[in-house]
Every structure is written in C-alpha cells, then in structure tokens.
Amino acid sequence: KSKTLVNVSVLNSKIGYISIVEEDGFIVAILFSYLEENPSLLTKSAKSQIEEYLEGKRKTFDLPLKIKGTDFQKRVWNAIYTVKYGETITYKDIGEMIGSKGYQAIGSACGKNPLPIVVPCHRILGKDNLGGFSSGMDIKIRLLKLENILQ
Q1: I need a labelling partner for 117 at 20 to 30 A (CA). Which of 12, 57, 127, 140 fits?
Q2: Helix axis angle, 91-98 relative to 103-111, nearest 10°?
C-alpha cells in the first residue's frame, strides 16, 4: 500500500492560524490551528485564495476538494457548498434541500465540516439565532461581517 502524501500550508491571518491540508492532490482539511508546514503548490494556491477571501477580494474558490465523511454528511456539505458569498440559509433550508427533517443531525454535520470557509458552514444559521460554529462563534461572526451579512 502506498503511503499517503500529506502537505500543509499555514496562513497566519487576522482570525488566527489556518492550516490547509492536502492529500494526494486534493484539499482535505482546513483547520483553525497551527500545523507544521510542508507546503505544496496546491496548498500554497489554497492559502493565497483564502488570503484573498479574507481580504474581501475573492468570493469563490477554485480548488480540488476531497471531503471525507458519511453519505449524510456529504449531502449536507454539498448543500452548504451551494450557498453563495454574502447569503445565508438555515439548517431547515438544508433539510429541505437534502430531504431530511433531522435538523440536529444537519447541525452536527455542519460542525464536522472539514473544509470551513471553502464549504461555507458559517453561512448556515439557526431559525432565530446564528447557530453554532465548530471553531468558535467569534470566527463565525468575523466571517459573516467580512461578507457583510452582519454589521
């Protein structure tokens, strides 16, 4: 069995460290933490795209993604991926998109999203509140303000 090649680039941003992880030519994780760097052309490209996004200069990403999770999680993440810059939807909206009334399970899948920012789970809100965010509400609020969703 061949060894999986893992590459990492780290962005020291205004919202903290963001580590971008590549395996075998695909971005597989974006973490709000510091990992030891071992960059590749792809992780450097992802880093610069995320930097542009955080500077308000980019609204979409052009990256090869491989997302690991259950079939249900992948359906949730695929629905989240369709939410455009500056827009929000609710957990209920996602349920309608994927044919599920399991809103807690949808929220749980959002919290396990391995590719935040690129798969924009920060754009998913509760019916009467901001919902949660696995990397902390301060980061979610900053991302929503960046996209002029919150003042």
Answers
A1: 127
A2: 100
Tens-place pLDDT, residues 5-40: 799 999 999 999 999 999 999 999 999 999 999 999
In this structure, how many other beta carbons lie within 10 angstroms of the beta carbon of residue 58?
15
pLDDT tens digits for range 81-99: 999 999 999 999 999 999 9
The β-bridge relationship of strands 16-23 and 124-125 is unpaired
Amino acid residing at 16: G
Q: What are 119's two structure tokens?
A: 């798969």
- Rounded to an integer, what distance in angstroms lies between the CA atom of residue 38 and that of residue 26? 15
Which helix (H) or strand (E) element contains residue 140?
helix 137-146
Residues tagged active-site = 121
**26 burial type by CB count under 10 A (0-12 exposed, 13-18 middle, 19+ buried):** middle
Number of helices (H), then strands (E), in the chain: 5, 5
Closest CA to 130 of 101, 91, 86, 93: 91
- 3-state DSSP assignment of residue 87: coil
How far is 4 from 6, CA to CA, in rounded Å? 6
